[in-house]
Amino acid sequence: MTELKKRIRPWVRIGAIVLLAGLMLFAAIRLYRWNTTGNSKRALTLVNSWNPMSETGYTPKLTETENGLLVDRACAKALKKMLSDCRAAGVQPVLVDAYRSVDEQLVRYDEEVQRLLERGMELEEAEREVALRIAQPGRSEHELGLSVDLVDVAYQEMDEIQSTTQTAQWMAENAWRYGFILRYPQGAEELTGYGWHPWHYRYVGEDAAANIWALGITLEEYLSMFYSEEAAVQVSDA
Ligand SMILES: [Zn+2]
């Protein structure tokens, strides 16, 4: 009897170890899945003129990036890699804007309205004009910390000519590989609410960016196609 016990004991121990290892592996896989799906949904948070930041429940987790600017941690590594690969290709991008707080957005918006009023425009007309280019406070994607404005060292204006620069061209071809998309493409005003912004890139995660790029669609269209319920997307009537 004791002989038998002696022979069985090592097997019991091995069995317990295998079972424990299996449980740990199972827990690790569950945790990884939970984490990655959580993060990828987070990176798809929609903020636009008709989906205000306050309704998203999103709180940016900020970290410092180039030029003293802040971005959400979710995209910091990808941004760094993208900029370094872009530079390695001989292109000279300049990161001019990233995260903006609601207050900073308010200042920017008011300054622009003020500038047009000083030129003699009526308030209503000035606000309409500014709204096409600058998001109203609380409705800017920059408040997520997932958007960046990139210009070329040789041409730093944020207008349509920016699209002809080496930076914009490199970004248009390669940004999706790093999880970024051209957020406001040419001719998509009715879908996104904004005109063509060849300098504005948004992090959505690698899978979504690859799909959006391949299909040539906007984030609004992508979310309506694949995530309509979670994203609660409404397409503007305007
Ligand atoms: Zn921007």
What report would you give on this structure?
The protein is elongated and about 100 Å long. The chain has 3 domains: 1-42; 45-100 and 145-238, 2-Layer Sandwich (Muramoyl-pentapeptide Carboxypeptidase, domain 2); 102-139, no CATH class. Strand 1 and strand 2 form a beta hairpin. The protein has helices spanning 2-42, 73-88, 102-118, 123-131, 166-174, 189-192, 206-215, 219-226, 228-231, and strands at 62-64, 70-72, 93-97, 147-152, 180-182, 200-203. The strands form 2 sheets. Strands 3-4-6-5 form a 4-stranded antiparallel β-sheet. The protein has a two-stranded antiparallel sheet with strand order 1-2. It is α+β, with helices and mostly antiparallel strands. 50% of the residues lie in helices and 10% in strands. It contains 9 helices and 6 strands, in the order H-E-E-H-E-H-H-E-H-E-H-E-H-H-H. Helix 3 (102-118) packs across helix 4 (123-131). Residues 97, 142, 147, 149, 200 line the site of zinc ion (ZN).
